[in-house]
Design goal:
single chain; globular; 12 strands; alpha+beta; PH-domain like; three-stranded antiparallel sheet; 23% strand
């Protein structure tokens, strides 16, 4: 885990304000004003491998504890700085999660961006950000998804989840179990905000989404990957239970999965392993194919992770506590 503080580039109007203050009030006042400007433009993030969670805006007396080169941060601080510079000055990144890609050299992030809307309430959208490779100093937007009041989140049973809103579905596969956990925590919270304020297409909310839609500039192959649809599956109806007082074969298997899954997760680095890799090891332990249990395994994995994940000390007197998100 790491705490990283990044600096936003000041907008021309903000920079000119600081310059005017220096001219009108003298050198001492100007330096104070510039310092306040720099503080207001700094943003702090709590990072695990593959995910960055926004902590605060502005400076903190505890900023001395920031570790920008922590081993868990990797390329994320540098990528995050590039992504921040694509935003409007009034918007903020709430969460950035690195995703798997069909292209080995491509780097993709699902980014939750929030702003105050016309009604002075919190509004959130998802952006898909693309880097051509991990060394790239530039990124582009390949997807924009406003989060309306009908937003639903579903585990896909294969190490990822889908977000459906206003008839659009997008699929995301974080690079690790820990990154998926972070993503689900935030997504359930922001979708609840949309429901609370009843955001709907054509209303007064989320009108600023158009700015980012006009900025979509990723290669077509990147855009196609953001628009990938889940495979169609044919499901068979459950067979009637002949003996309700006896556990079915599925129930017996699920009980065994719970036991084996917990023992595997206790000894794994959850920041460097995907749920698909955990399921593969589980299949090896149980010597059977668990494809039809994918969604059950993902749900159990999150439940176990929530039970394992104790409060983390961030600063003196400040703990990060993660609660288990509801599964829709």
């Amino acid at each position: 885990m790491a705490l990283v503080t990044l600096q936003r580039s000041p907008t021309p109007s903000a920079a000119s304000t600081a310059s005017t203050a220096t001219t009108n009030a003298g050198e001492d006042f100007g330096s104070d004003d510039e310092r306040r400007l720099n503080q207001s433009l700094s943003e702090s993030f709590f990072m695990v491998k593959g995910a960055a969670l926004f902590l605060q805006q502005g400076s903190s007396p505890l900023s001395q504890k920031v570790h920008p080169h922590h081993k868990h941060a990797g390329d994320l601080p540098r990528h995050l700085q590039v992504m921040i510079n694509l935003l409007r000055s009034e918007d903020r990144i709430k969460l950035a999660v690195r995703l798997e890609s069909a292209w080995s050299d491509r780097v993709r992030y699902m980014v939750v961006v929030y702003s105050n809307g016309r009604q002075d309430t919190e509004e959130n959208i998802l952006l898909g950000m693309d880097f051509t490779n991990k060394e790239s100093k530039n990124c582009s937007i390949g997807m924009v998804l406003p989060l309306w009041s009908d937003t639903k989140i579903h585990l896909d049973g294969d190490g990822g989840f889908s977000v459906t809103t206003a008839g659009k579905t997008r699929i995301f596969k974080p690079v690790s179990v820990q990154a998926m956990w972070s993503a689900l925590q935030i997504l359930h919270k922001v979708s609840e905000v949309s429901r609370r304020y009843n955001y709907f297409p054509g209303g007064m909310s989320l009108t600023w989404t158009g700015f980012y839609e006009s900025c979509i500039s990723s290669d077509q192959s990147c855009i196609n990957e953001w628009n990938t649809m889940r495979d169609l599956e044919t499901t068979r109806p459950d067979s009637p239970a002949l003996f309700v007082d006896k556990p079915t074969e599925r129930e017996r298997t699920e009980r065994l999965v719970k036991t084996k899954l917990r023992s595997i997760m206790m000894y794994k680095d959850l920041e460097n392993i995907t749920s698909k890799e955990i399921r593969t090891e589980l299949e090896q332990h149980m010597n059977c194919n668990l494809k039809e249990y994918k969604e059950f395994i993902d749900n159990e994995m999150l439940l176990i992770l929530g039970q394992m994940d104790k409060a983390s000390l961030i600063f003196d007197h400040l703990y990060l506590v993660r609660s288990t998100p509801g599964i829709y």
